[in-house]
Amino acid sequence: MTPLVLAMPGNEAMAGQLALALGVELGMATVRRFPDGESYVRVESAVQGRPVVIVCTLDRPDDKLIPLLLLAAAARENGAADVGLVAPYLAYMRQDVRFHPGETVSAQHFATWLSRGFDWLATVDPHLHRIADLSQVYAIPTRRVHAASAVAAWLRAHVTRPVLVGPDEESGQWVADVAQRAEAPLVVLCKIRKGDRDVEVSVPDVDRWRDYTPVLVDDIVSTGRTMIETIGHLRRAGMAAPICIAIHAVFSGSAARELESAGAGRVVSCDTVVHPSNAISIAHDLASAVCELLQIPRT
Ligand code: R5P
């Protein structure tokens, strides 16, 4: 039976691109709130015997989780052969350890809830730091799409003489991959996070890169503090206004505006979270991951 793609609200564009790339039908589902704030879901397309692929990026996850799990349950109860999740951005991966007594490892709980609701998961560059692999927390098959080749292709087409800058050691893994693919030099800085919005970044020898276009790459831009702090250092050292690339444009509150005011030359992101800065499409890479999980040939 041919797979069916369903979009959670706000994910229509990605779901449409995915269905097109997979050569399968984009189905219909109703997801809305009752007046009391509870969720109502209904699968409108025929799912009997078919693999169902639900697309839901998971920034601002707390509002999305209940209707998402309900939609997966509705698909399953209406006869879907299996139900997979494409979450271009996977939430809660940063709370991967108990930092202080009394806390919990949210990453583990979130993974448990999704593993109970879905048969498999495809995502883009999840924040793997103290958790080395998704299989440590997810009990279902997973595929990680790497944005590096799409980001490197964008860089080659749009930026002359880039020097890739990773704002912290955690970003090293993504930035090194992008730098290698774009055949560009690389600098990884050192960050100390003192609070949610209090970040200090040390900048080593930037003199060497004065004639290059600095390109900051980070997996997640949330408050923007990491990038803003780094921009400040680079500008004070006399470097050009950097291009800021976010794999996941989470951008809480006024972060995008603050980033521009801080002196970002341009802010660019992958389309894993819908945002005006989206310029790099990940749909084709996600489609390949879905084909692997569904064991169907890539069209
Ligand atoms: C760190 O763990 C991540 O790789 C990002 O550097 C971080 O999430 C960025 O957060 P913010 O934009 O709030 O500084």
From TrEMBL:
Q: Which residues form the Ribose-phosphate pyrophosphokinase N-terminal domain?
A: 5-115
Q: Name one Pfam family in it.
A: Pribosyltran_N
Q: Can the keyword Glycosyltransferase be found in this entry's annotation? A: no
Recorded GO molecular functions are: ribose phosphate diphosphokinase activity
Alphabetical UniProt keywords:
Nucleotide biosynthesis, Transferase
InterPro entries from the entry?
A: Pribosyltran_N, PRTase-like, PRTase_dom, Rib-P_diPkinase
> Phosphoribosyltransferase domain: from which residue to which, for each copy?
146-271
Tree of life domain: Bacteria
State the top-level EC class. transferase
Its Enzyme Commission number(s) read 2.7.6.1
Which PANTHER family does this UniProt record tie to the protein? RIBOSE-PHOSPHATE DIPHOSPHOKINASE FAMILY MEMBER, RIBOSE-PHOSPHATE PYROPHOSPHOKINASE 1, CHLOROPLASTIC
The UniProt similarity line reads: Belongs to the ribose-phosphate pyrophosphokinase family.
Give the protein's recorded name.
Ribose-phosphate pyrophosphokinase 2
Organism, by scientific name, is Cupriavidus pinatubonensis
Source species taxonomy: Bacteria, Pseudomonadati, Pseudomonadota, Betaproteobacteria, Burkholderiales
